[in-house]
Amino acid sequence: MNVEWYVVLSALLFTTGAVGILVRRSPMVILLCLELMLNAGNLALVAFSRMVGNQQGQVFAIVVMVIAACEVVVGLGLIVALFRRKLPLNVDDLRELRG
Amino acid sequence: MEAVLFFLAAIGALGGAIGVVAMRNPFYSVLALIVHLFSLAVLFLLLTSAFVAAAQVVVYAGAVMVLYVFVVAYVGGGGESAWEPIPGQRLPAPLLGIALFVELSVAVLSSALLALGTHGPDVPAGFGDPAAIGRLLLEKFLVPFEASSILLLIAAVGAIVLAGRRREDEGAVTPTGHSAPQARPDGVAAASSPGGVR
Question: Hey, which residues 123-162 in chain B have their CB within 8 Å of chain A?
Fold first, then answer.
């Protein structure tokens, strides 16, 4: 398969994640959609690394995985903290920081 | 054979992604994301990056998704309210998504990357296996490797500080002690630290 198929699939997955972030309200699903976008970026990185014939893009993808794991840990910690304080788990209700 | 595998994995990845967005219950969204991650691991294998595929399955579909399932089971699903602060917000979102996809595709496919239409160069047998990636990580990319380990430690400590159960009597220094207490809803300030109810 040509590399462009992978890149177009990666763009499609990224778009799906972005639409999910715009549409959904639950912070947990928004985190999942962020995962989708990060994974789309990972797919593009690995595809380009295959295209160039160089393994450094794969190292970049692994670093992105580490960042994603950190983001998940902190985000889920925030969700658990919200739940403990009995705040609504809805990003439209949590608007105190908006001006 | 490779094309069949690619299209099967692509359908799995895309279906999983759409499932994440479309499912009402967050638990089913997590399950759809697991399907998506396994399909992506197949795609990584097709791109001859065995170590990234293994890390995807072990780290993502194993560890991170267990964390998600645990938190979903703890917090509970629950439907989303239909209240919209910006009316008609959901209508332009798919249109913006289509525009984003067209823009990304045009940006990539119309670029001057001549090798984009090829399969890529022939690579040696050890391309992307754990030995090669490990050698790269520990020789050329040692500083980013160590920095990411420190970042993981910071994230773990931060998660404990955010979500950990704090004692009621000695909550003098809590991470929320400096935020504005009057902005919170009722019933929250009673459970917070003494610094928050001043």
Answer: 123, 127-128, 132-133, 136-137, 140-141, 144, 148, 151-152, 154-156, 158-162
